[in-house]
Amino acid sequence: MSSTTATPDTAAPPAGSGAGADERVAKRSLFRTLLGRPELGALVGAAALFVFFAIVSDVFISPAAQANVLYSASTLGIMAVGVSLLMIGGEFDLSTGVAAISSGLVASLFSWYFATNVWVGVAMALVVSLLIGFINGLIFIKTKLPSFIVTLAMFFMLAGLNLALTRLIGGSVSSPPISTMDGFELGRSIFAARIPVFGVDVNSTVFIWFGMVLVATWVLMRTRVGNWIYAVGGDAEAARAVGVPVTATKIGLFMAVGFCAWVLGMHLLFGFGTMQSGEGIGNEFFYIIAVVVGGCLLTGGYGTAIGGAIGAFIFGMSQRGIVYAGWDADWFRFFLGLMLLVATVINLTVKKRSES
Amino acid sequence: MAKKSTMMMAVAATAAAALTLSACSSEGGRQEAAGGEGGGGEGAGTPEINVSLITHAAPGDTFWDIVRAGAEENATKNNVNLQYTSDPDGARQAQLVNQAVDQGVDGIVVTLAKADAMSGAVERAVDAGIPVISINAGEEEFADMGVITHFGQNESIAGEALGERLQEEGLEKPICVIQEQGHVGLENRCAGVTEVLPETEILYVQGTDMPSVKSTVTSSLQTSDADAIVGLGAPFTMTIIEAVEETGSDITVASFDLNAELAQAIADERVLFTVDQQPYLQGYSAVDAIWAYHRGGFTPGGGQPVLTGPAIVDGENIENVLAYAEEGIR
């Protein structure tokens, strides 16, 4: 990969390249700049999908329906933030779907078993989630196995732990109800509140999601850590050679995914009161799909957090739009596959064109 | 890295501090010393037998907790050593049956949700002289495989019972929410409802993802003119209630199956009624039937399935059910 196309064009050109007439630092036309954006394909797709559903269903554009679409997108998008950063950094995490459930279960079971304030459990869950990310990262670094394998192993282990520990501690396969315990209402008002905006109730996860996307974008575009992430995703060995702390960056990225899993886990816990220990399996692929549709390359080093957000929004639209349009849900997965294929083909074409 | 671990230590320290301050919740949480184990009672005085309970439960489905509770209670009573295993995949569930046959157990209780995949293994067990009882699913197929009897609910009859009850309430156009596409039992329930109320709408949701269940139901409520909505499992009905209450819809909620929260919701009149198939009875009766077979060669049912439902639980009889639902046996 060439670092000039991968780094966002807002970033400074490599220092010391000298020659002012170098074509690498020549000003690009607005059109070419737009074409070079990783999220362009997804944005066009999102707009097309929006117009399409607006035509086939009159309810779809109502504020209440849009609030619902955004909610749907946010539960996916929160994880997609971490997953997109990780994918830009060149790695995968297949344990994300069950890790979110683990986080909610830890909070719920811990505070229930010790009959503490729910927030003690919430803090424990954060520690455990970050730890899971840390362990993923550490094993990956130490063994040099592909992250695909490492996190797949973690996926199975977490899925098993979720079931076994929930049953061992709570005596049932779902976590005991904790909605009457101290601190639950506060948690609900943060992670699963309904906030009125222009007369419609919007779930607080939507704002949390937006906030996380902004922070991730800022980190990627404006900080040194952001440059490190692009560098380790592009070519870890080359990055190491120029002094990028590859190990710390990769482990940090896995921990960022852990943080996202915690946020989603808290929403599941406070939004629904009890956690079903067998849930979450399969969701990891939906996060990856959203991020890929949003223009991140599976090979790493290329993409944005906003792209992942647009991918999640496309997902939310198609998931809900099919119901609003009154279609047979049998087709949902087919559309999903088709969308993934089209999005990746567009991304590839756009990328090739902007490089030529 | 240094920054991260400092942060983690800070979080851990906060948690520890909160613990030492003993931030005990004033309400809820685990109760210390929650009394003796339920059931128990005197043993049957018969020699110990080994029984395998092999279901198609997906890991983490609360329904099977109740089946298991019934089976375990009977096992304690009748001096049965009960081994529970499950696998939602038909072929792998059949392997579990084969394993039990190889172990030479004294009886097998099995669900026949994927009857075709199971028939070979079940027939092998029957040929080996092991008494087999089917529960929950397999009402049509059990007799052909040589299974002694079947304890379960006929899903179509249950669906019809629900439809008839809605009709009595003057409701004509329900939404039937299926949480697992392609699940025959669930499809049959909705088909039963449709049999009585032809205007029934079917809505598929992704049961493994609660936020998705909630927002799909919300979308449907925003577009549909239905007057009732039916959840096909207790945890899903609880999510449906949330969606209904948040959209401010005055639609009536009904359900299949039961758990503690759903029982409470019926008591609070947030759900009109539920159709219970009494899963406890399926687990309990099946283990009991194996024991009775060894005791005196008994075969209940007379070649016909023994129905454990539908039993309707509504505002009228919820008082009798609530405490048992909390105990985890209803």
Automatic annotation (TrEMBL), chain A:
Pfam entry (one): BPD_transp_2
Alphabetical list of InterPro entries matching this protein: ABC_transp_permease
A GO cellular component annotation in the UniProt record: plasma membrane
Keyword Transmembrane attached: yes
Regions of compositional bias (Low complexity) in chain numbering: 1-16
PANTHER family, per the entry: ABC TRANSPORTER PERMEASE PROTEIN YPHD-RELATED-RELATED (PTHR32196), XYLOSE TRANSPORT SYSTEM PERMEASE PROTEIN XYLH (PTHR32196:SF32)
Protein name as annotated: Xylose transport system permease protein XylH
From TrEMBL, chain B:
Keywords carried by this UniProt record: Signal
Region (Disordered): 28-47
Localization per Swiss-Prot or TrEMBL: Cell envelope
GO cellular component assignments: outer membrane-bounded periplasmic space
InterPro entries hit by this protein: Bact_Solute-Bind_Prot2, Peripla_BP_I, SBP_2_dom
Biased composition (Gly residues): 35-44
Signal peptide limits: 1-23
Highest taxon in the source lineage: Bacteria
Keyword rRNA-binding assigned: no
One annotated GO molecular function: carbohydrate binding
Residues in Periplasmic binding protein domain copies: 59-296
PANTHER family given in the database record: ABC TRANSPORTER PERIPLASMIC-BINDING PROTEIN YPHF (PTHR30036:SF7), D-XYLOSE-BINDING PERIPLASMIC PROTEIN (PTHR30036)
UniProt similarity note: Belongs to the bacterial solute-binding protein 2 family.
Name this protein carries in UniProt: Sugar ABC transporter substrate-binding protein
Lineage, broadest ranks: Bacteria, Bacillati, Actinomycetota, Actinomycetes, Micrococcales
